[in-house]
Write a structure and sequence with these properties.
Blueprint lengths: L2 E3 L9 E3 L2 H9 L7 E5 L5 E9 L4 E9 L8 E7 L4 H13 L3 E6 L9 H22 L6 E2 L3 E2 H7 L6 E6 L6 E2 H5 L5 E6 L7 H9 L3 E4 L10 H9 L1
Helix pairs in contact: 2-3, 2-7
Amino acid sequence: MPRFYCPTPLATGLALSLPAGAARHVQVLRLQPGDLITLFNGEGGEFDATVTRMGRSDVQVRVGTHSALEREALRAVQLVVGMPANERMDWLVEKATELGVARITPLMTQRTVLKLQGERALKRQLHWLGIAQSACAQSGRNRVPQIDLAQSWSAWWSQHKPASDVQQFVLSLQPQARPWRDVSRTPPAAVCVLSGPEGGLSEEEESLAIANGFAPVSLGAHTLRSETAPLVVLSQLL
């Protein structure tokens, strides 16, 4: 059954017009009055709904039964990533959402190519949030991960205060870094993973992370792309 994100209050028996994005998708699928769809608004569970009207630019539905289904991961994972350039960040957000990430925090580090500020940063945040919403609809998740506004390295450190039960790791190429496979055998319940952009974190940045409680871990002898490495960790955790 087709699934759609609908960021409005939902209740059984409610008649409503779908948001523009969902309505366009329904029209592309050529659904007709009487067809069944699934709606979720990120507040937990999902609703079945019936298409009642197909207009030229709007779609009306009647909301049916609520199912308290949760398909979230057992572990809360935050990815703090030095933003890869161009569409690679889009790809990372999509795949991390499918894998069950709880939060993504984009950072501008010394080697980050993409620099975002002000309105441009807000537009990109909304763009990534839209990608996450679509990935939730596709993958069956009923809760959308938090996508933070892109911020500078220094700004993030000035407000980063992890909870006591969160274990923190930084992806590292240092020879003394602990192999990630050793950590993943008994993964913690809540994790924050820090990874760099193309070219990785600078020595200064990695040293700061380690000094602030991030344990250096290695993914092995192969050097992975900046958008691939955090997904490897995420897939093994979740």
